[in-house]
TrEMBL record:
Protein name: DUF4270 family protein
Keywords, comma-separated and alphabetical: Signal
Lineage top rank: taxon: Bacteria
InterPro entries found in the cross-reference section: DUF4270
Endpoints of the signal sequence: 1-23
Organism: Sphingobacterium faecale
Amino acid sequence: MRQLLRFRYLFFLSLLATTVSFISCDKDMSVSLDDSNDNLGVVVLDSMTINTSTYQLMHLPSASTGSMLVGKSTQPESGSITSSSYFRVQLQTLINDIPSNAVFDSVNLVLRPSINKYFYGDTTKAQTIAVHRVMETIALKDITNSIDQYNTPIYVTGPTIFNDQKFDFDATALGEKTFFPRINSLDSINIRLDQAFGQEIYDMVKANDYNVTSNESFQQYLKGLVLVPGNQNTAILGLNDTLQMNINYSYMGSDGFIKKGAKVITSSHKAFQYNNIEYDRTGTAYASINSIDRELKSSASNGEVLLHAGSGLVAKINIPSLNDFMHEEDLAINKVELIVETKGNNFGHYPVPNALMLLIANSNGVPISYVRTPFSTTVQQATFIPGNDSGVNGRYIFNLIDYTKNINQSDYRGTSLLLSVASPALFGTVNNTIIATENGKPKIKLNIVYTKFK
């Protein structure tokens, strides 16, 4: 009976010790699991210094994202971001199936919202989209052969098109449309194009011209189109990357009634559809960041750090004492969490990213790997946890137990962490968030719970 009581007493003490270790805010605390002769202790550590900067990624692919981003959005804290979308086109059929008695009517481009009806910005105001003819061949770029492998980001695996690339286009628009993007009810955007442009294509099809005998020759004639937003736009819209341009005609049917038809031109290979992203951070705390001066320490931006998908802004994180800590003997890591608190919510005109990820960067700041889900090969994504009206910030929580245990391996020497919007949203959206601050520093905390053998 006495042994049973002693067991229950010890079991209660162990539960109490574990509970205290997880709820305590002490920076370095040891709790004995038994009597004073026990050589085992649980320690909670949350006082490690974390150095953080806003950092500009380079070579961000923006092709084949599944969504054409078109528009402009402006926020006081982050500046403006503008997206134009380029794409190749092809004839849906290569045969001349236009009736002999048909006459050309008009040409129009039909755009439809992306499947998830993505938008970012104020959609209560009128938006303008102009269609321009691309005058330069839209071509893929292969940086894996042109720069050292040490400087090739892990997310670049072959030839692609990057968000900062531009191809020449005719300054005179083929057509434009101003509309109110009622996101929930918007079915399509119909843009009437230049009459002479449509007539020329119609005549070529009727004459079996060389330019329409194959899509290769057609793409020499029409190298592509680009959708350009109006300068006064207030939102970026996600449009389906499958679209169509109709060369409309009419003819007298055998029944004596006027009938309508169209020669359809569609978007071509998705690898040649990409979004050109431009940003203007003038007047913000991040105005000095560009492709040359790529890093801004948080101390120079009032402790705030900006993450921005599309433009490639991430948070660069260094934890100087973590390596030394992991060299300590007689300890076993039980739990490691990186907690990032952020401003904003995941609803409204400017929602924060749904999830973040951590990239591992080499000494040049180039992403070479990802922080993966423990005991898995998948990239770890921390989903947004909303805050509340009582002053609790939204947050993202990462499990870093595997990363921490491997930090002293040779592959991790000289590396840092890059906190980024999770893929694929990093490449196909423009959502942003600013990390919350406390006492003039970013609210990023590394919590480590470990067992110390005395």
